[in-house]
Recover the amino acids of this structure.
C-alpha cells in the first residue's frame, strides 16, 4: 500500500515537475499542466489503440507530439504576454486548459468516453521475500527515477540546460549574454509538455484516459507547492509526500479525507513554510 | 535627551557581517548624513531603522522609545518617513493619490463610516487634501498632480517620493540617496528642498548620499562607514579630511 | 473632450464628476428600474443573475483588482453565504437578519483564510485559497446533517416583514437594491483612506508599510470585505436557484468568478458589472453558435473552448477588459481625429521577477 502511495506520488511528482520546469524558467504557473497531461494520454491512446503501435513507440510519439503542442502554446499565447504580471499569465493558462479540455471532447474518436491503454505489464507481480510487488507500480517508480536522472544531467551538463537555468535566474541578463530567451522559453514549454505527456501515460493504467483526467493536475499542484515552487528536488519530494499521505489517508481515515488530503497537507505546509519546504525565501531589495 | 539614537547596531546575512557595531546619534533639527563607498552598509542601516530587516544586535531609540520590536508600519506611525534608493512609488496611481496615501497615519475614520461616507469622513478627506496640497505647493508639483506616476520622468518621481514622505508629516525623514539618478540641476533643486525641509518645516533629516557637493552643502554632521563599520564622524569638512575616509575611497597611499 | 477646472477640494471626492455623469447614470438607473415593464421573463431572470454576479464581482474586485491578492477559492465564500441563508431561512430567521449573517459568516471565513494568507505571496496565496476552496466544498458534501450533503437544500422565496417576494419583479428589485448598495459601499471605501491603503498594498507592499499601512490588518480586511460581499451574493444566489448543493461551489465556480473581474477589467468597479453581464450572456451566445458546428463534431466541448479562447484573447489583446475597451473607444471619439494607437500601450518588458517582494 505504501508502494501504491509512492507510485501515485511519482505521478504527482512528474506533474509537479512539469509545473516547476515552467515556473523556474518563466515564472509562470501553468494551470493547464493537468490538461496537457490528459492530451498526452489521448495522443498515446490514438497511437496505441487506433494505430496499434507498440508501447515504447507510443510513449515516444506522445512525448514528441506534446512537446510540439507545448512549443506552439508558448509561441501563440504565452509570448504575447511575456513580462506581464504573473496573475495575468496564470489566467491565460487557465484559458488554455479550458480550450484543451473542450477540444478533446470535440475531436471525433476521443470525446467524453473513458478508454484504456494496454501496457505490457498490467497484472504481473513480483514476489520478493514474501512481499508482493505489482510490476505496474515498480515501473512507474522506475521510469520516474530514470526521467529525473535524465533531467538532472540535462540541466547540469548540456549547453541548452545551462542556458535554461540562466534564463530562469535573470531573463534580461541571459538575453544580453546572447541566449535567445524566447527560444529557450519555447523549449522549456516543449520539455514541460513532454514531461506532462509522460506523466499522462504513466497515469493512464491507473485512472484510464478520459477528458477529465486533467484534474489530477490539480493534485500535482499541491505537490509542487509543498516542495516549494521552483525547486526540482522539491517537486519530487512534494509529489511523494502527497502520494503517500493520500494513500495513508484513504486507508486510515474516514471516506472523503483521501480527496482533500493533498489540500490539507498544502495548507499546513504553507502555514509553516510560506514558500514551500525547499522554496527560496527572497527579499526585495530597496 | 536624545532624539534618535542607534547603538551597537549589527546584522549578518549568512556569514557576511553587513553592518557591525554601528552607533550614532541624530540631534533634533539637524541634517545627519551617512557616507561610504558602495557596499559599506548604508542602505542596510536604513532598512534596519525601518525594521524591514530584523537586526541581529543593537538598540534603536526614537524619542526615548526603543523601537526594535516594532513592525514597519508602527515605525511610520511614530513619525519616521523614508524614501527609497530605487523609488518605490504606487505606479498605477496619480501623484495626488500617492501623496494621499502618505496621509495614512493621520486617518481618523472607522471602516463603517467610510462605507457610508459619513460627513465626518468627508470633512477628514477635505482636510487631508488641504495638507497634501501644501506639500504639492512646497515641491512645485502642481502641474503633475493628476498625472499617473508611471508616466513621469525619473527626476520628478524622486520628488514625488520625497513629497509622499513629507505628506506623512514626519519628525524624522530618512532619505536614501536623494540625488542618485538626478542631473546637476535636479540635484541642485534637491539640495534646496532638503535645506528648506530642515529649516522651514523643522524636520530632522537622516540621509545616505554619495554626492559630496550635496553632502557638504546640506549636512551638519557626517558619519563615514566602510565595510559595515564606522570609520569617522564629524562635520563634512572634518570627515572629508580624515585619513581613514580617504583611504577607504582612494586606497592606501603608496 | 471635457475639461474640468477644479476650484474646490470637494470636487475630487464628489461621486458624479460632472453633469454628464449625473445624466448617464440617471438614465441607466431609470432603464433598470423600468426593467419589469420592458423585459421578458427570460431577460428578467438573466438580470437577476447579473445583479448577483455583480455583487460577487465587486467583492473580488476589491480583493484582486484593488488589493492585488489573488483568490482561487471564492466559491467557498459564496457557499458560506448561500448555506447560511438556506439554514437561517429554514429556521425562520427574518431575511434582514439572515442576509446580514450571511455577510458576517462569510467575512469570518474570509478572515480565517486571510490570516494565514498574510505570509503568502502570489502563487502560494493562489494555491492556499484554492486548497481552502476545495476543503470547504468537501466539508459541505460530507457534513450531511447540516447541509444535506449532495441532496442539497431547498429555499423558499424571500419574505420581508411578511411581504413575500415571489414574483420575478419583486426579487429583481431586491437584487438591484442590494447591488446598488454594495456598489456605493465599494465606491465610498475606495475614496477613503482604507481604499487607498488597499491600492498601496497592491502597488508596493514595502512602501505601503513604510508609510504606516498595517499590512496584516488591511490584507485581512480586504479578505473580509471581499468575502462579505461574496456572501451577500451567495445568499441571493441561493434564493435565485431555490436549491443549492455542493456542486455549485466547485473550483470551476471560483475560476468563473475570477474571470468576471478579468474580462470586465481589473481595477475598475465598472468592470465587475460588465464582466458579470458578459459571463451571463456568453452561454446564450454559445448555444446559438452551436447550430453552426459542422456535422460530426460533438458540441459538448464548445462552451469550454469558447470560454477558454475568450479568456486568452482578452488577456492578449485587451488586458484591461471590457471597461478598458470602453475607455479606449470613448477616448477615440473625444479626441477625434487625434487618437493615437499607442496611447494605452503598455511598455514591453522582460520579466520582472516577482520572487522577491
Amino acid at each position: 500500500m505504501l508502494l501504491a502511495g509512492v507510485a501515485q506520488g511519482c505521478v504527482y511528482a512528474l506533474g509537479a515537475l512539469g509545473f516547476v520546469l515552467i515556473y523556474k524558467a518563466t515564472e509562470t504557473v501553468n494551470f493547464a499542466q493537468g490538461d496537457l497531461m490528459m492530451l498526452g494520454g489521448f495522443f498515446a491512446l490514438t497511437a496505441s489503440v487506433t494505430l496499434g503501435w507498440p508501447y515504447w513507440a507510443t510513449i515516444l510519439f506522445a512525448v514528441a507530439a506534446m512537446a510540439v503542442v507545448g512549443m506552439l502554446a508558448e509561441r501563440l499565447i504565452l509570448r504575447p504576454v511575456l513580462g506581464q504580471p504573473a496573475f495575468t499569465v496564470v489566467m491565460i493558462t487557465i484559458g488554455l486548459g479550458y480550450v484543451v479540455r473542450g477540444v478533446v471532447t470535440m475531436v471525433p474518436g476521443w470525446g467524453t468516453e473513458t478508454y484504456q491503454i494496454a501496457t505490457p505489464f498490467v497484472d504481473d507481480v513480483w514476489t520478493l521475500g514474501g512481499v508482493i510487488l505489482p510490476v505496474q507500480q515498480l515501473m512507474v517508480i522506475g521510469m520516474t527515477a530514470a526521467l529525473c536522472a535524465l533531467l538532472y544531467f540535462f540541466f547540469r551538463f548540456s549547453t541548452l540546460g545551462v542556458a535554461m537555468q540562466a534564463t530562469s535566474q535573470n531573463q534580461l541578463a541571459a538575453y544580453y549574454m546572447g541566449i535567445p530567451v524566447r527560444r529557450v522559453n519555447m523549449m522549456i514549454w516543449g520539455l514541460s509538455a513532454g514531461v506532462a505527456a509522460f506523466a499522462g501515460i504513466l497515469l493512464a493504467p491507473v485512472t484510464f484516459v478520459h477528458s477529465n483526467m486533467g484534474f489530477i493536475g490539480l493534485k500535482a499542484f499541491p505537490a509542487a507547492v509543498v516542495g516549494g515552487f521552483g525547486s526540482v528536488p522539491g517537486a519530487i519530494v512534494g509529489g511523494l509526500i502527497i502520494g503517500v499521505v493520500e494513500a495513508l489517508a484513504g486507508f486510515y481515515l474516514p471516506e472523503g479525507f483521501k480527496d482533500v488530503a493533498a489540500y490539507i497537507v498544502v495548507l499546513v505546509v504553507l502555514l509553516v513554510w510560506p514558500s514551500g519546504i525547499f522554496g527560496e525565501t527572497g527579499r526585495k531589495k530597496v | 535627551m536624545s532624539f534618535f539614537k542607534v547603538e551597537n547596531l549589527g546584522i549578518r546575512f549568512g556569514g557576511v557581517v553587513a553592518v557591525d557595531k554601528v552607533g550614532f546619534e541624530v540631534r533634533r533639527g539637524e541634517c545627519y548624513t551617512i557616507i561610504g563607498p558602495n557596499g559599506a552598509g548604508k542602505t542596510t542601516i536604513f532598512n534596519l531603522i525601518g525594521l524591514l530587516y530584523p537586526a541581529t544586535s543593537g538598540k534603536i531609540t526614537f524619542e526615548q522609545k526603543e523601537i526594535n520590536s516594532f513592525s514597519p508600519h508602527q515605525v511610520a506611525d511614530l513619525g519616521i518617513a523614508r524614501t527609497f534608493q530605487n523609488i518605490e512609488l504606487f505606479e498605477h496611481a496619480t501623484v495626488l493619490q500617492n501623496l494621499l496615501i502618505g496621509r495614512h497615519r493621520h486617518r481618523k475614520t472607522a471602516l463603517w463610516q467610510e462605507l457610508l461616507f459619513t460627513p465626518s469622513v468627508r470633512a477628514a478627506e477635505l482636510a487631508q487634501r488641504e495638507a497634501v496640497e501644501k506639500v504639492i505647493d512646497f515641491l512645485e508639483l502642481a502641474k503633475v498632480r493628476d498625472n499617473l506616476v508611471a508616466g513621469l520622468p525619473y527626476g520628478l518621481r524622486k520628488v514625488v517620493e520625497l513629497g509622499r514622505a513629507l505628506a506623512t508629516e514626519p519628525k524624522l525623514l530618512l532619505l536614501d540617496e536623494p540625488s542618485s539618478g538626478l542631473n546637476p540641476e535636479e540635484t541642485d533643486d534637491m539640495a534646496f528642498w532638503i535645506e528648506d525641509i530642515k529649516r522651514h518645516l523643522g524636520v530632522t533629516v537622516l540621509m545616505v548620499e554619495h554626492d559630496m557637493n550635496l553632502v557638504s552643502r546640506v549636512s551638519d554632521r557626517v558619519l563615514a562607514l566602510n565595510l559595515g563599520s564606522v570609520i569617522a564622524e564629524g562635520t563634512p569638512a572634518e570627515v572629508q579630511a580624515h585619513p581613514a575616509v580617504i583611504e577607504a575611497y582612494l586606497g592606501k597611499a603608496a | 473632450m471635457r475639461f474640468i477646472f477644479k476650484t474646490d477640494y470637494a470636487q475630487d471626492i464628489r461621486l458624479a464628476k460632472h453633469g454628464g455623469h449625473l445624466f448617464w447614470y440617471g438614465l441607466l438607473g431609470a432603464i433598470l428600474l423600468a426593467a419589469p415593464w420592458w423585459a421578458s421573463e427570460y431577460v428578467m431572470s438573466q438580470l437577476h443573475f447579473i445583479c448577483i454576479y455583480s455583487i460577487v464581482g465587486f467583492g473580488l474586485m476589491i480583493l484582486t483588482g484593488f488589493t492585488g491578492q489573488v483568490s482561487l477559492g471564492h466559491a467557498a465564500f459564496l457557499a458560506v453565504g448561500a448555506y447560511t441563508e438556506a439554514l437561517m431561512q429554514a429556521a425562520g430567521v427574518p431575511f434582514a437578519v439572515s442576509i446580514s449573517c450571511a455577510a458576517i459568516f462569510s467575512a469570518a471565513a474570509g478572515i480565517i483564510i486571510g490570516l494565514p494568507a498574510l505570509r503568502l505571496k502570489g502563487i502560494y496565496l493562489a494555491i492556499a485559497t484554492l486548497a481552502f476552496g476545495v476543503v470547504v466544498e468537501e466539508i459541505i458534501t460530507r457534513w450531511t446533517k447540516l447541509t444535506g450533503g449532495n441532496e442539497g437544500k431547498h429555499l423558499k422565496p424571500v419574505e420581508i416583514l411578511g411581504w413575500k417576494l415571489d414574483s420575478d419583479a419583486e426579487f429583481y428589485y431586491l437584487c438591484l437594491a442590494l447591488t446598488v448598495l454594495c456598489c456605493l459601499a465599494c465606491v465610498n471605501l475606495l475614496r477613503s483612506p482604507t481604499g487607498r491603503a488597499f491600492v498601496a498594498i497592491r502597488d508596493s507592499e514595502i512602501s505601503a508599510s513604510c508609510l504606516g499601512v498595517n499590512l496584516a490588518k488591511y490584507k485581512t480586511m480586504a479578505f473580509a470585505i471581499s468575502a462579505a460581499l461574496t456572501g451577500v451574493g451567495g445568499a441571493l444566489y441561493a434564493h435565485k436557484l431555490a436549491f443549492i448543493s455542493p456542486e455549485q461551489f466547485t473550483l470551476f465556480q471560483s475560476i468563473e468568478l475570477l474571470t468576471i473581474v478579468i474580462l470586465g477589467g481589473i481595477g475598475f468597479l465598472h468592470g465587475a458589472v460588465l464582466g458579470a453581464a458578459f459571463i451571463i450572456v456568453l452561454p446564450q451566445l454559445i448555444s446559438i453558435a452551436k447550430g453552426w458546428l459542422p456535422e460530426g463534431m460533438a458540441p459538448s466541448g464548445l462552451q469550454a473552448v469558447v470560454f477558454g479562447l475568450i479568456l486568452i484573447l482578452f488577456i492578449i489583446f485587451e488586458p484591461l477588459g471590457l471597461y478598458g475597451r470602453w475607455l479606449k473607444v470613448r477616448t477615440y471619439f473625444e479626441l477625434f481625429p487625434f487618437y493615437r494607437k499607442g496611447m494605452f500601450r503598455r511598455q514591453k518588458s522582460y520579466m520582472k521577477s516577482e520572487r522577491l517582494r
